[in-house]
Amino acid sequence: MHDYVLRRVLQGIATIFVVSLVIFLMTRISGDPTDLMMSPYATTQEREVFRRTYGLDRPLGSQYVTFVGNAMRGDLGKSLRWGDPVVRLVWERFPNTLELALAALGIALVVGLPVGAFSALRPNGVFDNVGKIVALAGQSIPNFWLGIMLILLLAVDLRLLPTSGRGDGLFSPNGWKYLIMPALTLSSFSMAAITRLTRSAMLDVLDSEYIKMVRLKGASTTVLIWKHALKNALISILTVASLQLVILLSGSVVIESVFGWPGMGALAVQAVFGRDYAVVQFVALLSAVMFVTVNLLVDILYAVLDPRIRYERSA
Amino acid sequence: MTPANVVSRPRVLVLAVALLSLGLMSALGGMAFGLQKVPTGAPASPVGKAVIALAPQTTATVDPALASGASDYANLEVLYNRLLEPYPDRSELGPGIATKWTVSPDGKTAEFKIRSGVKFHNGDVLTAEDVVFTYQRVQRIGQPIAKAPLERFMESVEAKGDSVIFHLKEPDWKFIHEFTKPYYSIVPKKYVERVGDDGFLKAPVGTGPFKFVGWAKQEFLEVEAVEGEHFLRKPGVKRLRYVIVPEETTRLAMVKTGEADLAQVSVTSLPAVQADPKIKLIKVPNTGGLRIFLFGQADPKNPFSKLEVRQALSLAIDREAIAQRIYHGYARPIAVATSNPVQANFPAWGTRAPPYDMEKAKQLLAKAGYPGGKGLTFTFHNYEYAVLPLWTQVAPVIASSWEKLGIQVTLRQWEWGSYAPLARTGKFDPLAVSTHIANLGSPWDPAGFMTDFTRSGTYRVPAGIADGAYPQLKDLAEQYDHELNPARRATLHEKILAYDRDNVIFIPVITQDGLFAAGPRVLAYTPMPGTIFTGNMYTIKVKP
């Protein structure tokens, strides 16, 4: 078991290094920020001052070694645009993104679990078919479009919710109102994924022998679903849900822009357009680290729960 | 933004009727928006709170030293003042913190007399020492873009009584324009020294018409009008709040719901704006000019070295159609590549734009040795610019017109960040033209674009267009750059424009307008013309 965990941790670290290299090269290949940051009137000499200040005049390899060396010490660089350390810049916004992602995951679970479970009870019934259509729509409708439609309907036409922003925060009197539309929009894909996964996991469980026994014993549908079937289907669902949280954290870029949500996604968009290397690198690296970490934890958890996994993988 | 603006459905109907009535009354009463319009019914002293939804490009910091361009203008103009300030009604910078200024005959010393009695928002009296400290602070912590002009022009700066003396490296009147940019907004020395740079960023103090209330990076800025009369600007509202909303549709929705009073929009939002009688459009004149560069004019073998070819390409552009059909009337043909965007006070500016004349264009091509466009093939580089997105629609129209002359045109669309370094170095195809978008010209340096051109190598003016082809223009530009007398400089500017027009060094296309959507509470807003960035926000007036 220890060998397996150690091997997975080393693989995770190697993955993060590769990702850091890819991110570093991709941001450089996309262009030089000097022209975007300097005045149009800037002379060659003035541009050279800028490039020297931010180390852009050095060879790529040297820049990467410096980047990794500094990153090991927790220094991920300073934003070209704001001059702040990127860790502080992103960290200021991370709680807002986390708040949005958790709310979206909550909606996805609250809706996805029961809809998936009830759909599985009567496959191809009316409820199941409606559920399938809604799930398909949730996975195929672009969320920026859905967001704008919600704004026009719920904010402009019905005046039920504010259009954008975060208000004075979640715990202010009306703060929750600002969260509803972005969270709902962000949850659409995950909601559909969890609905479909719950349905298929439930179908597997409902077909098992012990469920047939529970049925024969005359248990009610409620007991059958909530006490016996869903409980056993939850392991794979919660695994996917934990990965969905990471997807939601790193995938809120568009939603944050549509709803003016002050999270790290909106920051990343601005950084990409402004060639703000340090910010882009850190946000991308943070997403990669979150993915690798959650994947690692899930794998370890699986190995703990099911010894066959660690033996199969070490074989 | 406030929850109070979220109303129940029955109230919406009542509100809608009331707003519609107000709209009708306003229309009947001739309430006008836009430049040079005098607001009617506006309160005498600042009242109410205005919320303005802005694109993220518009505000980034509240500390001038950390500003990195005109994109910080909206924040800085309300909180601070500079030595000299822009005035919408004049083409030269006017008094700000300095009441008057003189430049020594040799052009190497400039003295600015500091206005007496100006107080910072914390009560400290502004002195010449604060001004010197401001410039030295930029040298210490400023962004490279802010440090660069100081390195280029300034030898040293000192306080002498109630004056500030700049010792310059070389005589060049443009230092005035450079040294009065928003990065050099004056900050209080004692306060900054007490709270430190980080403390100042959290609670900035200036001398502007509004004092700081709260700010969150790329989220909002809230300011409050100073009590009593401000020495320079008259705040239109008691409170002003900027909210940063990246998506244009959302910004417009905020105006529709009343969460915002004013929002930056583009021509693409016109149908949605026009469908709502409560919303009005405010035009910001001349936010960007489109011109076309023709590379390699100095090379006699290059077709672009021939005046007839350049004239033909210019005459084949239907500028009026572009202005009407793509910009829906929020653009106008231009006659010259650069000019003063605020005032039409130069003869060349008033000259009619080249007409759309395909027949004459064909004749000129034939005269140049390219009958039916035969043998003329080039690449047309165009780029996308997020702030002014319609450019990408204009280039295909122009390319299509040139193809009608028989020319083979390859259109290449670029993302701005990739285009800029190419343009700066001129590393395009051997035979190439390129669109160029920028302010038509600075109001205080209207010929700057053309004089930059003679030096080339900035991305405003790429290398390789016509280096060495127009020695007369270079002489004029040299004179213009070193002419300290504004009147004589204006004359030189006219000559430069006329020279460009007659030689078609650049092909002028259109000047376009910026747009704001204004909600029913807005009584007046006088936008700042001539720039793609937002300004004059202090002029907004709303119903209480």
Describe the protein's architecture and organization:
Chain A is an all-alpha fold and 315 residues long. In chain A, 77% of the residues lie in helices and 0% in strands. In chain A, helix 1 packs antiparallel against helix 13. Chain A is globular. Chain B is of the alpha+beta class and 544 residues long. Helices cover 33% and strands 22% of the residues of chain B. In chain B, the strands form four sheets. In chain B, strands 1, 8, 9, 10, 11, 12, 13, 14, 15, 16 and 17 form an eleven-stranded mixed sheet that branches. In chain B, a hairpin with an 8-residue loop joins strand 2 and strand 3. The two termini of chain B are 16 Å apart. Classes of the chains: A mainly alpha (315), B alpha+beta (544). Chains A and B meet through helix 2, helix 3, helix 7 and helix 12 of A and helix 1, helix 4, helix 7 and helix 14 of B.
Quick tags:
heterodimer; A: 315 residues; mainly alpha; 14 helices; 77% helix; globular; B: 544 residues; alpha+beta; four-stranded antiparallel sheet
Structural class of chain A: mainly alpha
- What is the tally of helical segments of chain B? 17
What is the helix fraction of residues of chain B, given as a range? 25-40%
Strand content of chain B: 15-25%
Shape of chain A: globular
**What is the total tally of β strands of chain A?**
0
